[in-house]
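Take a look at the protein record below with the fold in mind.
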Amino acid sequence: MNPGRQDDHLPAVAVGRFAPSPTGLLHLGSLLAALASYCDTRSRQGLWQLRIDDIDGPRSMPGSADAIQKTLEALGFEWDGPVLWQGRRLDRYREALQYLIDRDLVFACNCSRKSLPRGEIYPGRCRDHTVDTFPLEDHAIRVRLSGIVAFNDAVQGPQTFDLSQDVGDSIVWRRDGLVSYALACAVDDADKVTHVVRGADLLAGTGAQLGIIKALDLTPPEYAHVPVAMDANGDKLSKHSQACPVDESDPLEILQRAWQLLGQQPLPETGSLADFWQRAIPAWQMNRVPRTRQMSV
C-alpha cells in the first residue's frame, strides 16, 4: 500500500465537499460554491461532506464554525457523515510529509518573506538544504515542484501549469510549525474526494496542490471553479472584507438568488426548502455556470 494514501481504493461513488475556513460567517460568495458543490454531487447520487479547514488557528474566529453549520442547516443542506476537521488530521499530514522527506522531495527554507522577490515564485535559494529530521526550528519546508500538470476544469476549461515557471517550490510545512493549506487540502481531497467544486479565486493554487498530489503519488480529484462574487466596488466578497452574512430569515430567496447567479434555468415556484432541493438537484447543469473568474452580485 502506498504510504502516501490512507486507502488504496477510490470511492465507489462520487464524493464532493464544501470546505470553509472558520474565519467568519457564511456569505453569498461562499454560498455559491456550497450550492454548486452540493447540487453537482447530489445530481451524481454521490456523498457530500462538510469539512472545516481549521488548521490556521490565528486566523480563526471563535464560534464561526458552528455558525456556518447552522446557516447551512437552515438552508436545507445535508451532509453525509460527521463534520470533518482538518485540525484533527495532523497525524495524516505528518505521514504525508514524511513520505516526501523519505524521497528527498523537500528542503528546509529559512528565507523570510521580506527577503523574497515580491509577486514572484520562490527563486530556489535553499534547494540544497536537506531535511533529515522533523520538526525543524525556525525553518519552513518546501517541496520541489517541476514538470507540467494539466486538467480540464468543468467550468473554466483546460488548465495547464508549468510547475517550475508558474508555481515554484511550495511550502508544505510552515515556519511557525503549522501544516500549509496547500499540503492539507491536497491530502484531504486526494484521500477521499472525487469532485472538488470551489471558487475561482482558488484556481491559481490548484497547480501547487496537483504538484503535491503528484509528489505523493496520489490520484487527484476532478475540479470545477465557479466564478467569485464581487461587490459594487469590484472587491471580492469575503470574510476578510466583512461581507454581509447570509440572511437565514428567507432561505428560499437567497437560494434562488444563488441559483440564478450560477446561470441555472429558472425553477418552478417553490413553496418550501424541500421543494427547492427536489427541483434543483435534477435540474443542475454545470455547463450553464458562467465561464468567468468573477461576477458582480
